[in-house]
Amino acid sequence: MATPSVRSSRGTTPLVVESISEQLHSILCERITTGAYAPGSRLDPQAIANEFGVSRTPVRDTLLRLEHDRLVETRPRSGTFVTRPSRQDVHEVCQLRKGLEWLATGVAAGAMPLEQIADLRDEAVAAIRAAEQGDYEPFFASDTRIHREIIASTGNSRLIAARESVEPFVYWLRVLGATGPHRLAGSTRRHLEILDAMAARDTEAAQEAAALHLTEVEEWTLADMASHDIVT
To answer: Residues near 111 by Cβ (< 8 Å), separated by ≥ 6?
Structure first.
């Protein structure tokens, strides 16, 4: 017998009954991080339950998880709202990334196969060329892959999980900010420095470039978001 499912009135993918909370989390997380739900907007649990034809229990569980992710906040006697990120949020996320990725880059400098490093480098170069022509998606894909594969190369499941825990927030900050050409060019320059140092098996240089990269990411993110009156 087919697995029961429910469908959003908006026509989104049917929800499998056994994992409603998990699927609701993925859908609502995507709506927040892509800007469909704007920072500061109120989320109505009953409206969400009605949209997907579910009880309020999985909706409540999902909102609690999103609150743990720092993507929503509950205000007493007011309701649940999409978080309006603060300068402290940006600083904390970048600081956490710097610690994790400094360590991971040191491991990757000695462990990642040279062929993999070369492939990441070729993709980064092709991505910035595409961005210069107005196509930014290859850069975002390359950026995500470089950081993800450096973390993965550690083989440390706890470190990987810690990095994944902030991935939605990292993506959200990118969407909220105005990604200007200076950021793409600057990030690519650091990416190539990191990868070249890794290829040379120069752990110290790779870690130094990784730390500097995250410092610059924080500065650029705050400047971009402030220019759009998003960050508080």
So the answer is: 153, 154, 155
